[in-house]
Amino acid sequence: MTSTVPNAVQHTDATEPITMFGPDFPYAYDDFLAHPAGIGQIPATEHGSEIAVIGGGLSGIVAAYELMKMGLRPVVYEADEIGGRLRTVGFDGCGPELTAEMGAMRFPPSSTALQHYIDLVGLETKPFPNPLSPATPSTVVDLKGTSHYARTVDDLPQVYREVMDAWNRCLEEGADFSDMNRAMRERDVPRIREIWAELVHKLDNQTFYGFLCDSDAFKSFRHREIFGQVGFGTGGWDTDFPNSILEILRVVYTEADDHHRSIVGGSQQLPLRLWDREPQKIVHWPLGTSLSSLHGGEPRPAVTRLHRTAGNRITVTDATGDIRTYPAAIFTGQSWLLLSKIDCDDALFPIDHWTAMERTHYMESSKLFVPVDRPFWLDEAVDGRGVPTGRDVMSMTLTDRMTRGTYLLDDGPDRPAVICLSYTWCDDSLKWLPLSPNERMDVMLKSLGEIYPGVDIKKHIIGNPVTVSWENEPYFMGAFKANLPGHYRYQRRLFTHFMQDRLPADRRGLFLAGDDISWTAGWAEGAVQTALNAVWGVMTQFGGATDATNPGPGDVFDDIAPVELPED
Hints:
By secondary structure, this protein is an alpha+beta fold. It has helices at residues 29-34, 58-70, 112-120, 158-175, 177-185, 189-203, 208-213, 221-230, 245-253, 269-276, 291-294, 351-359, 426-430, 437-451, 488-495, 524-541, 557-560, and strands at residues 50-54, 73-77, 88-90, 99-101, 125-127, 139-143, 146-150, 261-263, 303-309, 313-318, 323-326, 329-331, 343-344, 362-363, 365-372, 380-382, 388-392, 396-399, 405-409, 417-425, 466-469, 480-481, 510-512. The strands form seven sheets. A seven-stranded mixed β-sheet has the order 7-6-18-19-20-15-21, sandwiched between helices. A hairpin with a 5-residue loop joins strand 16 and strand 17.
């Protein structure tokens, strides 16, 4: 168990893997990808047809890669750089082995469709040092000026175990955790749907915090406050307190916040390698074809306008003024771009889908990393008399100070290393927004100096800090979507948009994808799953089909469609 406050009751059978299989749409994307029949084909008469793919993040690159394999010609538009929020950067003046993950940096094993592509391009993963995980030598929890050093949860004071027990009870009594966990492990679709339908009807209007307050297990404000600061899995979750409890239940049911791994060398390698990959099984195109070769090495630039033209086609204008028209397009950027950065026709989507995009709630997030000469935090601390204490001089740190979460990342005892001095969300992220990278670093070092008064972090820093505030990134305007209470209906509209036979004929042809269209926003798995949905939609529009032995997400949609709440 990787969490400070573990993620509910123990599993009934820990040998059975769990995946992001539901609860909203319990479809086996991992089995779909692994099937020897492939994920579908289109008529030969359509081979070579151009399809616009707007956004070169993971979702866009996965969609483009699969469309290319089917014999279509994806035309990728990217405003910034391939990768989206899989953004890995280096440090000026430091070796290429030192990198910082500005966006996604940890991935749960339950992301099995994502893992398919990680394996496909030959990337390696390793355990990520979350609080109290086996990969983390030690953790310090610092609240209200008092620090507690721990190697396991048992090293923390009794009140933390009380909070752990309260969270377990809260999930069990209020969300049928054990029953759902068992059903998801067994891929028992009828039971998953039965449990989830009841919870969606009951909890769609409830906040995360309200869910805690409604539980007798969390009647203590002190317990709720501690839980907000140290949370579960990756640390504190109080910035999520205003969000829908359904968002949190999706995380705990799918173990999305457990047993995280990082991608060796950086997560951005995944979309970049897919961009360059030459698939061995490909239709229409000669062997040796890649997305890169189809684009002359570079994607098209930013899209500035989208509109419908005769024949219900999608016309795309890019930043150079170039205008191209396509029979279909996939949009994978954050949906707010359609409201602000891109000039769009109202006719692109039904009005209810526009409303859903307008109501999308994005969370802010900031990080700051510094390179250091070595993992000095593994040195043994000494007391005021110079006597060894048996403790590390510095630890993975959870605190209510400005830094909130500090992560220590190394690749061996004698090699340069990286510290994520601060990883924050929402209001905590906004506090950093006016500050320059060096100003941010100074405030962070001051906070950490109060927790580790004898440690001179600054003397180990060997390069300038790198930072990001995703709310200030013009093509993102936030880290990821997080539904507020009452937003389930909006999310359902966006997720089911790929089923375009239910749409008016003059509103078809433009498909939405990306993690904020998924039920698991903020997780790369959602980006992959919605990309595959959109690929199925495009394939179907072109008269294609999946193999009868490997039905796609749209083929089985009516059997496993997400719960539909009344509109009145």
